[in-house]
Amino acid sequence: MTSKPKLKNQLWLVFILGTISATGPLSIDLYLPALPEMTRDLHAQPSLIQLSLSACLIGLALGQLISGPLSDKYGRKKPLMVGFFIFGLVSLMIAYSHSAYLLILLRFIQGLAGASGQVLSRAIASDLFSGPLLTKFYSLLSAVNGIFPVISPVIGGFMIRYVEWQGIFILLAAIGFILVIALWLGVKETLPVEKRIQGGAGKSIGRMFQLLKNSKFVRLIIATGLVSGGLFSYISASSFVFQNFFHMSVQGFSLLYALNGIGIAVGSAIPGALAGRFSEAGQTKVILTSTFLTSILLTLSALFLNNLPLVIILVFLTVTQFGMLFTLTTSIIMNLTLHNNGGLSAMLGLSQNAIGGLMSPLVGLMGTNTYLPMAVAIMTCMGLSLLLFSTIHNKRSQFNGS
Q1: Which residue in 18, 26, 91, 28 sits closest to 55, CA to CA?
Q2: Do 49 and 35 contact (CB within 8 A), yes or no?
Q3: Residue 71 belongs to a domain with what CATH number?
Q4: 194 in a structural domain
Q5: Which biological process terms from the Gene Ontology are attached to this UniProt entry (predicted)?
Q6: What spatial distance separates the first Cα and last Cα of the chain, rounded to whole Å?
């Protein structure tokens, strides 16, 4: 592990890593207010346009399987710069797409390219920190990352008032190219040559897949992925639920989505304040239980009440707890010290994005004229996550090895 950065360098590191790890939120949240317009403009069904969300998430998952292990061999910085250059280029291509099917394909490639930001921000942090310090750093990182879900739909909703939906992807292209420059000038390599995996690229990938021999690790990453599935059940359905079912305006939905983004950011910061006093595993079990109970209430409200203020409150509580869970589960996994942090982070990202990508179209296929599918999907994901996590022992050492 490299020496701990000074406070000034830590703050810059939190900012830049928080920004590059926001590839997912930027790619998803920024265009959410435009989904209804894109559905009309591309003459497609809502479930087909929602599939563009899934394609991006699946790309984010598979891309991490490439950039994660390669960073264990070649270092963190070069894969990041290449990834964000391609991200910017593909974003420009999306802006000139006139087909829903081409949109889906390009969104998949966009996810592949942008995956390096998510996987390597976690790997860089674990190169520098461990234990409660890593939990505290991830709390700060998640809080910065949480800013983007707050501002992205607001910016997207504002842009839709004045420009076509294509303008959102032109903005994403600009962000991608700016990040290439920021990485080049402002981030140092954190993985020394002597700590990199020697041999061909295949060896790095093989070391990553060896993690799957550990059954407890597999249960842990699936439990974590199900939390992401719950979040993306909300994300994919939210614009249709609040704009179509509850008849909110685009701007009203954007502000509501921003409020929930604040909830995620606040929730992400809480585990850092509790680190060292309560174990990450203990906190996770408590929050998984409370999130599951909240999702049951949301489901019951869909069956019997359909009350907008109550839905707003329950959704806010749910996503705030999602923020806590993402910090806690990420810290637990990245503290496993299995000596290939890029591959470890890639497996985490694979589970999160793949399960999130699967849940998004499922919610859309179940209908958009009620929020019951969204509530049931969240409840199912959280119930399964709680069940899986409860089978895992708390001691970190029990995860090590195969």
Answers
A1: 28
A2: yes
A3: 1.20.1250.20
A4: no
A5: xenobiotic detoxification by transmembrane export across the plasma membrane
A6: 23
Query: pTM of the full predicted structure?
Result: 0.77
User: Which pair of structure tokens corresponds to residue 320?
Assistant: 């705030």
Residue 9 lies in a domain: no
Q: Tell me the per-residue pLDDT of 117-168, one tens digit each, with 9 for 90 and over.
A: 888 888 888 888 878 888 888 888 877 776 776 677 778 888 888 888 889 9
Q: Are 160 and 34 in contact (CB under 8 A)?
A: yes
Q: At what angle do helices 341-365 and 308-334 cross, to 10 degrees?
A: 160
Distance CA 212, CA 402 (A): 8
How many domains are contained in the chain?
Answer: 1
Query: What are the distances in angstroms from CA 87 to CA 79, 92, 108?
Result: 12, 9, 11
Q: Collect all residues with Cβ–Cβ distance below 8 Å to 286 and sequence separation of at least 6.
A: none
The boundaries of the domain holding residue 320 are 14-186+205-393
Please give the structure tokens belonging to residue 46.
């809502």
HSE-up (13 A, CA, CB side) for residue 336 = 30
